[in-house]
Amino acid sequence: MIVQFTDVIEKEKFRGNFPPFSNNRFLHDRILRVDDFIEQPYLGGTLDGEKQNFILHFKLSSATKEKVIKIRGLNCTFKDIKPNFPILTNWEVFIDVEKSLDRDIFIYFESKAAYGEWRLQFGSDKTELHLENPQKVYDWMTCEVVFDHIALIRASTPLNDESMELPRFLVFPVVSYESIGDDFRGGVGQPYGRTIRRLKTLSVQFARVKAYLIDELYNRVGLTEPHFVVPYPENIYNVPPMWATLSNPPEFTKRDENDWYWNTKLTWKEAY
After folding, report:
1. Domain end call among 135, 157, 179
2. Cβ distance 226 to 199 under 8 Å?
3. Residue of 23, 24, 51, 229 with fewest CB within 10 Å of its CB?
4. Could you read off the pLDDT of 94-115 as tens digits, one per residue?
5. For the segment 48-70, what is each residue's pLDDT rounded down to a tens digit?
6. Which structural domain, as residue segments, surrounds residue 171?
7. HSE (CB half, 13 Å, CA atoms) of 188?
8. Do 130 and 194 sit in the same domain of this protein?
9. Has residue 249 got a pLDDT over 90?
10. Kind of pairing between the strands at 227-230 and 2-4
11. Are residues 101 and 13 in the same domain?
């Protein structure tokens, strides 16, 4: 399990090569725009001695003009995507904009080299003649992409204090929902009220862990600091990452054995 404490890529730095994490706190309350300009819009980072795995998490806005968005990888390989859009090659994926609106999209990719630079380029799937050289045809064009939100989540062993790795939890995690709003019943049982939003919840149990690991997490985020939770970094399709807060402080039960090992439980609620 990976926990990441930072969330959304800084808007003003999206166009160039930069450290892809920021300290912006809220996930869903912003619009990030990649304008149509000469240089291709891209998101990138450097590779410093370690192959790294990431999850690109975004939601497209209805203001996106293109019908199809192409995401091309440089020095990285796409492994999985949710929802089930086709990965045409191991370094290129097409996103149907109309089918993607109001849906969280997760793309799992890994760097191909230990040193150098990786890059994700956003473009369209149309062709256009080069004005100065009519014989040259480009199949890659920049395009205007508008994100309701976008984030980059580490899915491999952390290399810095922006994230941490927790032990694997027991094999029966509980995934549920909590509705925000009012739910009433009339005198003869008719339902009425208003559901504003359904927040996902996740509950996991740990057996035989060192308490300091869970303490480190709780002391950093408490019950009010949102962070990314990646239950299964190797499988984003069945249990996607969550932007969430802890619901309760951890409670530790001492195991009946030598040395100081504990059982505990953590529960998260999706933050909006």
Report:
1. 157
2. no
3. 23
4. 888 888 888 889 988 888 776 7
5. 667 788 888 888 888 787 788 88
6. 166-270
7. 0
8. no
9. yes
10. antiparallel
11. yes
Confidence of residue 37 (pLDDT cuts 50, 70, 90): very low
More confident residue, 117 or 128: 117
Point out the domain boundary residue: 129, 157, 185: 157
Please check whether residues 128 and 145 belong to one and the same domain.
yes
Same domain, 6 and 50: yes
Count of structural domains within the chain = 2
- 153 with 171, same domain? no
Q: Are residues 12 and 72 in the same domain?
A: yes
Mean pLDDT of the chain: 79
139 and 245, same domain (yes or no): no
